[in-house]
Design a protein that fits this description.
15 helices; alpha/beta; 460 residues; 17% strand
Length: 460
């Protein structure tokens, strides 16, 4: 398991994405006491280049058994503690491609290194005190960011903007605990506790915890994005809407009904939120087997979507076919889109279903897209996107720990109000302190570390 790996072994891994004929540079990374010795054994540096920390050397990687040149490379040496892991780190910058980089990695392993486990470089950075657990999680969020705003949120966490308020909350809990325990141990030497002041501090703590918890929904949106399905009967302009929205010709657009035979996917960003848009085949009764398969996939896509963009033709108004489809998807969060408004008179509003958001578009002329995005953000409670004016956002693990901390603090409040003995106060205070410590890693649980770092790629 990742958390119990030996800290004394030197590890190696490919630190860059490697694909055939793609990428000009591939990096093999070493970390551990033997990193520099392994590099010396494999790399021949011509001239009198000094092997000093944070200098780039030029040379040839050779097979130490045959002396055959494997690659021409640059060597970057970063000695402890001025490295990512706070251990000696060496990076071998080779030519990109699969064969050369894998051969260099194999030579490192033959020279005494061990292949790194997923996330082991970052795990060592955490265990050596270079980063805390929130920063480690922000690294994987940054690697997987699907929008500029998601990347900025991850960077905020990497810079410690989440850890700071969590540590502050934990310290406040520790201060209250110290006051309470002092009264237990030295009751005769100290004045009694100011219960009103303790209650005020607890109220403030609960509010601060909730302020951080309010960023959880924003965190989910930043990390997983929103899945949206464009649904409707054939030839209402679903594909035109996708093309206008994505500013590309992802979907075929013709006047023939049933042109889209399968689900067409597009990845967009709406005001910083990653959005996966699914343009589905028009739902109707069909005898063509291929079209039937496409319609069935459309139904499944609608069931899996977070939000339905139910599209109708404003020229036709609300039809019986629209009603049939609407009945199938009306249990989902939904926006009604009246497309082709440029070709239609006003639609009788009494004929439309009662929905919270109706957007009028002329997709062929790229009209109504901004209003559509406004409606989407309103549907997903856009206020949460800037919750508490914080630029960080917690993940699910952190939200669970914070919820436990809040529950413990509320229990402390109840205990004080019921005037129970001070020993009872300390039980829930310690629970709050432990839960807050689990977020930053000050309270370490090995199974939690294993779960977090197993999601990293091997070279990170």
């Amino acid at each position: 398991m990742a958390a119990s790996l030996s800290h004394h072994e030197t590890i190696a891994a490919i630190a860059t994405a490697i694909a055939p004929e793609q990428g000009s540079v591939g990096i093999v990374r070493l970390s551990g006491d033997q990193s520099q010795a392994i590099a010396h054994r494999l790399v021949q540096t011509p001239g009198h280049q000094a092997w000093e920390s944070h200098r780039i050397l030029y040379g040839y990687i050779r097979d130490p058994h045959t002396q055959a040149i494997v690659d021409e490379a640059l060597v970057l040496l970063m000695l402890a503690p001025r490295s990512y892991t706070r251990e000696d780190v060496v990076e071998l910058h080779c030519h990109g491609g699969i064969m050369v980089v894998q051969r260099v990695l194999q030579l490192c392993i033959e020279a005494g290194a061990r292949l790194a486990e997923p996330g082991e470089f970052t795990l060592r950075a955490f265990l050596n005190g270079r980063i805390d657990l929130t920063q480690a999680e922000s690294i994987t969020d940054l690697v997987g960011a699907r929008s500029p705003q998601a990347a900025q949120t991850a960077l905020a966490g990497l810079r410690g903007k989440l850890a700071q308020p969590i540590r502050r909350l934990r310290q406040q809990c520790l201060s209250i605990l110290a006051e309470v325990e002092a009264r237990i141990d030295f009751a005769d030497d100290l004045p009694p506790l100011d219960d009103a002041e303790i209650q005020r501090q607890l109220d403030d703590l609960v509010q601060q915890v909730q302020k951080v918890l309010d960023t959880a929904e924003r965190g989910i949106l930043m990390r997983t994005g929103l899945k949206v399905a464009i649904v409707g009967r054939p030839n209402v302009g679903k594909s035109s809407l996708l093309n206008a929205w994505s500013q590309s010709d992802r979907a075929i657009v013709t006047d023939l009904p049933g042109t889209t035979r399968d689900v067409v996917e597009s990845q967009l960003t709406v005001r910083g939120i990653p959005v996966q848009v699914l343009d589905t085949a028009g739902i109707r009764e069909a005898s063509d087997q291929v079209e039937q398969l496409g319609i069935e996939r459309s139904r499944r896509a609608a069931e899996a979507a977070d939000l339905i963009l139910f599209t109708i033709d404003a020229q036709s108004g609300w039809t019986s076919d629209d009603q049939i489809i609407y009945d199938q998807v009306s249990d989902r969060p939904l926006i009604l889109i009246m497309n082709k408004v440029d070709l239609a008179d006003a639609v009788d509003p009494t004929s439309l279903p009662s929905v919270s958001h109706i957007v009028r578009t002329a997709a062929a002329y790229h009209q109504g897209i901004e209003a559509l995005e406004d409606a989407i953000l309103d549907c997903i409670h856009a206020k949460t996107l800037t919750a508490a004016n914080q630029d960080f956002a917690i993940n699910q693990r952190q939200a669970i720990a914070l919820t436990r901390a809040k529950s413990a603090l509320l229990q402390v409040q109840q205990t004080t109000q019921e005037q129970l003995p001070l020993d009872f106060w300390t039980i829930d205070l310690r629970q709050a302190i432990q839960s807050l410590g689990e977020i930053t890693g000050e309270e370490m649980v090995e199974s939690v570390l294993d779960e977090i770092f197993s999601r990293f790629c091997i070279g990170k």
